Inverse folding.
């Protein structure tokens, strides 16, 4: 009887340890200081979120959603306001310590301030400020037209830039882990 109980306990521990090993992979949250961006910037943006085909087949909602946004970055903070049909549906503030914001109740739960801040910083912050904030096993490759975030050598996110400086014109963030593509069309606000 003791042998059976011991064997059962070993199997139970093995099953628990296997579950721990299979924890879902998540992208790191950088939460970089606003001043690490290195300049002040005010942008008008058109953001288009596309579900990647693997997810779209399983989801009955529309594959593509767009909204207009105003993005401001300076040494004191990051501020973003998102608008759809003339109504503000999203705000985000980050002062380097506190992440705040509001969102319309009808926005999908995946649209959250932490993910938005991570994507903004991955697209725009200098690579040399992102790399030290990456956890073990994560690396960032950066060239003039492309940025790649890898986990253990496997590509998880790519960013393609179509203009110089990178915050003007079009940028495309392809998040394979999150199964979405974010198309960002930006132009400097008057006077910035």
């Amino acid at each position: 009887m003791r042998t059976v109980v011991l064997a059962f306990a070993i199997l139970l521990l093995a099953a628990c340890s296997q579950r721990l090993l299979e924890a879902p992979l998540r992208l790191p949250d950088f939460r970089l200081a606003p001043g690490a961006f290195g300049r002040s910037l005010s942008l008008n943006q058109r953001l288009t979120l596309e579900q990647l085909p693997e997810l779209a087949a399983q989801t009955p909602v529309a594959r593509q959603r767009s909204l207009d946004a105003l993005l401001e970055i300076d040494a004191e903070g990051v501020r973003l306001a998102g608008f759809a049909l003339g109504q503000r549906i999203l705000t985000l503030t980050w002062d380097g310590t506190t992440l705040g914001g509001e969102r319309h109740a009808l926005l999908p739960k995946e649209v959250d301030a932490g993910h938005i801040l991570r994507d903004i910083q991955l697209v725009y912050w200098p690579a040399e400020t992102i790399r030290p904030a990456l956890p073990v096993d994560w690396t960032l490759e950066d060239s003039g037209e492309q940025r790649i975030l890898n986990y253990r050598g496997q590509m998880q996110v790519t960013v393609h830039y179509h203009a110089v400086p990178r915050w003007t014109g079009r940028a495309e963030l392809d998040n394979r882990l999150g199964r979405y593509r974010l198309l960002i069309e930006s132009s400097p606000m008057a006077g910035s």
